[in-house]
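Reopening: C-alpha cells for the cytidine-5'-monophosphate complex, inputs below.
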Amino acid sequence: MTSTQNPADKIIVALDGMNRNEALAFISKLPSLQWVKVGLELFVNAGPEILEELRDKGLKIFLDLKFHDIPNTMSATCKCVARSGAQLITVHGCAGIKALKQSNKAASEGALEVGLPQPTLLAVTVLSSWDSNNFSRDLAINHTIKERVIWLADLASKVGIGGCICSPQEVKILRKLHPEPFQLVTPGIRFNDDQLDDQSRVMNPREAIDLGASRLVIGRPITASSDPAKAFRRFCSSLNSDYD
Ligand code: C5P
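Re-run output (same inputs, fresh job):
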C-alpha cells in the first residue's frame, strides 16, 4: 500500500462476543476505527438497529451473516440488508449461480431504493474450521479445500459477485486468478507473538496485504487486548509505518 493510503481502511474489527452496549463501549475506545464486522452473535443479540447505530457513529459495516437459502429468500434478504447501509455482505458461494446472481442484483436494488451506494457481496468459500479429513468425509466432496476455494471464488467472480472470503493461505493464488477490484477479505491474521486462539493457519498483516488481500478481519488480538487502541494502532502501523 502507498504511504497516502490510510491503513485503518484495510482493517475490519470483528465485534464478536459483545452485546449492544459492549459493542458501543468498545468502539468508543477506537476513534480511528473505520470498519466493523457485525456477525450473527451481535446481530441476534442487539437486533438490526445496531447497524444504524454503528453507521451513525461514522463506521462502515461488514455484515457477516453468511446467507445461504433458496434464490428467492436469499435475494429478498440481501435486498433488505442492503437498505441498512451495510457495505460488505457475506453470502455462501455454495448457494449456487442462480442464488448469487439474484442476490447481487437484489442488493443493488435495495441500496438504490434508499439512495445508498451499492454494497459488495462477498462469497464465503470454505470456512476455516474445516480440515481436509472432515471436509471430504462429512460433505462427500472430492475437491481438496484449496480446489474448492478456487472453484467457489471463480463462480462468484463469473456471476459478478464483488469478492470472497478466504484464508490467508489462499490469498496469493486467488489474487493471481482474480485481479482487483475483486475483493479478497481475510480472517486468520496474527502477529508472530499473538495467541493463535482457535486459528490454525495464520499470517501476519503485512504479508497478507502484500500478497493481495483487500481487507483483513481481525477480532481477538484487538477486542481481547488489555489496550485495544494500542493493539489497533499496532496493526495499522504494520501496514504503513507513517501511521501513528
Ligand atoms: O480469530 P479472530 O478473533 O481474529 O477472528 C476474526 C474473525 O475470523 C471471526 O469473526 C470469524 O468470523 C473468523 N474466524 C475464522 N476462523 C476461525 C475463527 C474465526 O475465520 N477459526
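The CA atoms of residues 15 and 23 lie 6 Å apart. The chain has eleven helices and eight strands. Marking as resolved unless the reporter disagrees.
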